[in-house]
Amino acid sequence: ALAEETRCDFPILGVTIGNNNNKTLIYFDNAATSHKPLKVTDALTSYYNTANSNVHRGAHSLSQQATKLYEEARDTVAKFVNAYSRNEVVFTSGATEALNLVAYSWGRANLKEGDEVIITAMEHHSNIVPWQIVAQETGAVLKILSVNDDGIDIEEYASLLSSKTKLVSVAHVSNVLGCVNPVADIVRMAKDESIGAKVLLDACQSTPHMKVDVQELGADWIAASGHKMCGPTGIGFLWGKLDVLREMQPFMGGGEMIQDVYLTHSTYADVPARFEAGTPQIAQAIGMGAALEYLMDIGMERISAYEHELAEYLHRRMSEVEGVRIFGPAPEKRGALVSFVTDGVHPSDLSTFLDMEGVAVRAGHHCCQPLHRELGVSHSARASLYFYNTKEEVDVFIEKLEETLAFFRNLESGGGFDADGSIDADGDVDGFEGFF
């Protein structure tokens, strides 16, 4: 199995955590960040030990080597998403900066009063707040596409589109529902000659898990995060069509992004340098390049197929647990994550108790407060998988989830601890006495 082949590349998967630091880590928080293989950490160490220098600014050997490694990483990203040109890849600090870059550079220049921007209720805050700010500044109108258990209703989407629509900005895969949005239809309908809108995709939850081909997708931009696909934190990228990027003005001013600077005015570099002001995240970009090489060596189709099988198993096992409400579509229509709530146990409490048993899940609103309001809850727990996770880990997670729920049910019924530390009455749960 894929996990068996790759787990040795991730030393952190062998650490012990838990109440007595004696539980082998089961890491189900991959939608928040993924772990880093040795190929990535070795690339970072090698850069700092053998090539550390600023890029693009020196004739000496170290600067030339650092520049070579940095720009090779751009080539790797271009290959990973099948870009038309390497110059379509802009390095950013992450997907949040990439989305803000489009909002402030393109949005401020192109949106005017009465223009409409369509987003969905499932968006991450980084794909909501920038558009709220730009709409307030320009007088543009935000149109919100509602969600259902399967994601979006394509007929409702069609009803929102009009000649006033200038941009559609949506998640490729929801980080809460796990649904894979119908991007081909979204793009095709937005690009209809009667509409002619631009399309921006938040690809944070798709690029780590499936093949993302920008030429096939047809969107104008995609934003992605390096740390969710085995790369370092502090790095991501914006891919954009070359002609669209060249129409955009700089996002930040400073070194690197200029052609000539005078006391009265400045001229700007061509893309992508125009959007990469200052000393860039050199090591992080090199690390992300190594991460994408690692993923391509495995094969994104293989990763996707394995995760689909694992996701179906997780969904089926969770469906068998009494008192669990799962959000999102059927397993065959979703990515490898499950957000859920349980009867009588707050997600934060659930996450804390699972952590005592060595299981790491996320609890909170996952930067999707509007979506949680639509779902009728304030928070949820989320178990999210990657290709290094296993069905055996899913089984342990389910076991500990059931034990935790039984523990809380027993507390509600007035049960207490037996002399041996287990829960009395019907709870029959060991391991939680240290919490009190």
Brief overview:
The protein has 14 helices and 17 strands.
What is the distance, rounded to the nearest whole angstrom, between the alpha carbons of the first and last residues? 40 Å
Give me the Rg, rounded: 23 Å
Assembly status? single chain
Which percent range describes the beta-strand content? Answer: 15-25%
Which residues sit in consecutive blocks of at least 5 with pLDDT less than 50? 417-429, 432-436
Give a quick account of the main beta sheet: strands, pairing sense, barrel closure: 7 strands, mixed
User: Strand order within the widest sheet?
Assistant: 4-10-9-8-7-5-6
Q: Helix/strand-derived class? A: alpha/beta
Total beta-strand segments: 17
Question: What descriptors fit this protein?
Answer:
38% helix, 436 residues, 4-stranded antiparallel β-sheet, alpha/beta, 14 helices
Walk me through the topology:
Elements: H1 2-6, E1 16-17, E2 23-24, E3 26-27, H2 38-50, H3 61-81, E4 89-92, H4 95-110, E5 116-120, H5 129-138, E6 141-145, H6 154-160, E7 165-171, H7 183-190, E8 198-202, H8 214-217, E9 221-225, E10 236-240, H9 242-246, E11 258-261, E12 266-268, H10 282-298, H11 300-319, E13 324-327, E14 337-342, H12 347-356, E15 359-360, E16 362-364, H13 369-375, E17 380-384, H14 391-412
Parallel strand pairs: 3-15, 5-6, 5-7, 7-8, 8-9
Antiparallel strand pairs: 1-2, 4-10, 9-10, 11-12, 13-14, 14-17, 16-17
Helix pairs in contact: 2-10, 3-10, 4-5, 11-14
